[in-house]
Automatic annotation (TrEMBL):
Keywords: Membrane, Transmembrane, Transmembrane helix, Transport. The lineage of its organism: Bacteria, Bacillati, Bacillota, Bacilli, Bacillales. This is Major facilitator superfamily (MFS) profile domain-containing protein. GO terms for molecular function: transmembrane transporter activity. It holds the Pfam family MFS_1.
Length: 429
């Protein structure tokens, strides 16, 4: 197998840091939910709109700018995106109305939308195919592990200095990471004298990069649609976790202090272990079998079913300990699809089109994050009690995840081939 350059791991380290900043920027809004709702006098439905607004532009920017990762300098693109992230964090402490808060979330979403596609494209340049799972898993490890570390620290910061301090702290962190990326980041291995993995893929692929117009019909295949739906379940739960978990633990479960920090941080910590652990397991299975279903599809499908079960049990649990346990397990199991989906797509698409594929996947799958916060907000506000509203919302989420997880597990099937490596640039149904 092709050796991985040592500098590839250095690039991956920066992608992990970038993913960490990216995710923590998202979840801050949930951590400050109680004080901000109180200060701005917001109802649950209004807070649902605030939580949803991040994904309004996120979806379109991941589709449009994510596709540009196939042909543009990815280092420059990630640099500009990172600059937008930190500027928004520095601006948010000055908001004084719900409309301004929504505006900052929209701009942040637009800046962060292309990030997963950019990371995918960069990993495709710097890592051979048999390392893709660990590459994508490491980036997602940064997003979840970073959130696990940052959440308790930010909650303490908010308690001591107010909610605005959390945004300032993340702006400073974003600035530090951006400076290091500008100095040490590289667009591709050829800049430091290594051969391009993409060039090897070009030579082994019968089809090269195509235009959006030629590419679009391939997105209506059964496989791609099911991958998007399964990813949509993960984004649904991610939005709920980011926007509503802290308020749920505070208002319904009556957690505060260290218990609240534990309940918020543990799901991210467990998800971090899931991202890297299942990515490594998937890569090992792929090296052993060369079979995408055995190595990636079966794993992601089974984990989604377990996540659906945990969401249901977390809502039904009658003890604090079991509530924390099941709501810790649910996100980690669900997010496995987010680390394996890029590796699955890399099997179906040529590297010259992976930016379009991953950008479209993120755009469509993350659309559920627009809906989820508002659905929860509506049910919470219009139910007899907040606890009942959360209960209805969690039950509906569990049922939807269960059905889609089964369809994904059964339905995603690549065409039979005489060899194990899939080298086409479109999803075959």
């Amino acid at each position: 197998m092709t050796r991985t350059p040592k500098y590839s791991w250095f690039i991956l380290f920066f992608l992990v840091l970038s993913g960490m900043i990216n995710q923590v920027d998202k979840i801050i809004i949930g951590l400050v939910s109680v004080p901000v709702m109180k200060e701005l006098d917001l109802s649950p439905s209004q807070w649902g709109v605030v939580g949803s607004s991040f994904f309004w532009a996120f979806t379109f920017s991941s589709l449009i700018l994510g596709g540009m990762a196939d042909s543009k300098n990815t280092k420059k693109m990630l640099s500009w995106m990172s600059l937008i992230w930190l500027l928004v964090q520095f601006a948010t402490p000055f908001v004084s109305s719900v409309s301004l808060l929504v505006l900052t979330r929209i701009i942040l979403g637009a800046g962060e939308g292309p990030a997963p596609a950019l990371s995918t494209a960069i990993i495709g340049k710097w890592f051979p195919k048999h390392r893709h799972g660990i590459g994508f898993g490491a980036v997602l490890l940064g997003t979840t592990g970073g959130s696990a570390i940052a959440s308790p620290l930010l909650i303490s910061l908010i308690d001591q200095y107010g909610w605005r301090s959390a945004f300032i702290a993340m702006g400073v962190m974003g600035l530090i990471v951006l400076v290091f990326w500008l100095v040490f980041g590289r667009d591709n291995p050829q800049e430091i004298g290594y051969p391009s993995f993409q060039q090897e893929e070009k030579q082994s692929s019968s089809l090269l990069k195509v235009s959006w117009r030629e590419f679009l019909p391939h997105l209506f295949s059964k496989n791609f649609i099911l991958i998007v739906l399964c990813g949509g379940c993960a984004y649904w739960l991610l939005a709920v976790q980011s926007v509503w978990f802290p308020a749920y633990f505070t208002k319904v479960q009556q957690f505060n202090g260290q218990m609240l920090q534990l309940a918020v941080a543990l799901p991210f910590l467990f998800a971090a272990f899931c991202q890297i652990g299942f990515a490594m397991l998937s890569d090992w299975l792929y090296r052993k079998t060369g079979d995408i279903r055995k190595a990636r599809v079966n794993l992601a499908g089974f984990m989604m079913l377990l996540s659906a079960l945990c969401v249901y049990l977390g809502n039904a649990a009658d003890s604090t300990a079991m509530t924390i346990v099941f709501f810790t397990l649910a996100p980690g199991f669900a997010y496995v699809i987010l680390s394996l989906a890029p590796a699955i797509l890399m099997e179906f698409y040529s590297p010259q089109n992976i930016g379009k594929a991953q950008g479209t996947f993120i755009a469509l799958a993350s659309a559920t994050s627009i809906i989820a916060p508002m659905v929860f907000g509506y049910l919470i506000q219009h139910s007899a009690t907040e606890a009942m509203g959360y209960g209805y919302a969690f039950e509906a989420s569990s049922f939807g995840m269960l059905i889609i997880g089964i369809l994904f597990w059964i339905g995603v099937r690549p065409a039979k081939r005489s060899h194990t490596t899939i080298k086409s640039d479109y999803v075959q149904s």
